[in-house]
Amino acid sequence: MNPCTCHISNLRCKNEQCYLLIVARSVFRTEVVYILSSIMKELKQEDFSARECVMALRRELKRTNNIQCDLFDQTANSIWGS
Fold it and tell me: What separation in angstroms does the CA of 5 have from each of 12, 22, 42, 53?
């Protein structure tokens, strides 16, 4: 693969490497919606409001540990090493 010279978030880039990131973002969104839907349905049945669910789950996603790593950093570190 040729290294891309554009910014990673450039969603119009035709470079093969960037295309893989674009596809990964799409898959990520789909999978996250699927996971959130099942969790939120359970919470709704337990009489939690939409606002409570969104705030709690968003807080967990944004939470950082003592070395300022969030969920994404922790997962990447476990795969690529730190």
Answer: 13, 16, 45, 40
